[in-house]
Amino acid sequence: MLSISALAGLLAIPVCGVIVDRLGAKPAALASFWLRGIGTLGYLIFHNIWGLTIAATIVVWGQRAWPVVNQTIISQLVPSENRTMWFGSSRSLRNLGNSLGMLIGTGIVAIFNTPLAYGTLIFIDAISFLIAAVLIAKIPLSSQPIIKKEPISKKVWAIRFSYDSNLMRFLVAVAPMTFMYVVLVFAMPAFIKEISPDLSWISGLLFTVNSLSVIVLQVPLLFFTHRLNDLQKIIVGSVVLGLSYIIFLGSTFLASAHLNFFVPLLFVGILLFSCGEQLFYPASATIVGEIGPAEKRGKSISSYQLLYGISNAIGPFIVGYLLTRNISFCWLFFVVLAFVGVFLQCMLLPNIIEQSRSRESTIL
After folding, report:
1. What is the model's pLDDT at position 88?
2. How many Cβ atoms sit within 10 Å of the Cβ of residue 318?
3. Considering the entire predicted model, what is its pTM?
4. Rounded to an integer, what is the distance from CA 218 to the centroid of its chain?
5. Residue of 128, 157, 164, 298 with fewest CB within 10 Å of its CB?
């Protein structure tokens, strides 16, 4: 059921980009919240596998659409020089909401472990999405493209629509780190289980630390690195992400002989990973919103978010294959991938960012 809904959710990302470009961010935002609200109510209505699959698919459509909408709204409302901080603040608030929601939900279920308690949580969850849709409807967002399209021939339009060289170079440059950012959630639990099944619980604690560090460190980290431009934040973040994977690689050699050092090393690695992603994601989100003209912002952002969707789809298969070959080889593969990613960023991104910033300054 989850696999079907996850694959179907990939389609929502480019569709949302088209809606943003043609109708504006507000209709796409409303659709995202309405889909999640209606789909969540479906969990209460349907009690068979096909009904639940349909409900889960509707929810996933809304979930996959929201990152595109969120980036578009921030890009539309916030000046270029402040967007990275806003993207970081958005991530911090989202992690805070997820953590509080899980804490409250777990507490309620622990105290009132009844079908009524589960149903009430699902109903409250659905209503919260619908309330959010009402609030979003009151935000004054432009429904039309900010930039007027220049009259060009149909032939040239077709070429530009099908192939944006700057966008393609950006996607190639950030794809390795995007994949590394996503697959850790698959790699770490499997890795720890291979080392010691008794330590499987550690992976949950590691990702809790990761989530808490985003809540606590995201905004201060961006504040203290405000002198770095977005390209430098991406590169530094990628280097730190690569260092975290080097730490994970090193932990494999300590697992058998020095298990007491193995667990602390994992926590050092996850903190480095968290700091790297906190620099990489907000800065890359800022840049992708500036690559093309405003009327094609939805296409650019949805293409970027599609990288995350594809990584989620193929990540488990690649990680599973690498771990069955050799545990150390799995981490070594990602270390090499990090070096490739940093090299591609240094080679491909500087000209793209310069062109994007000059276009935006000309418009303003």
Report:
1. 92
2. 16
3. 0.84
4. 15
5. 157
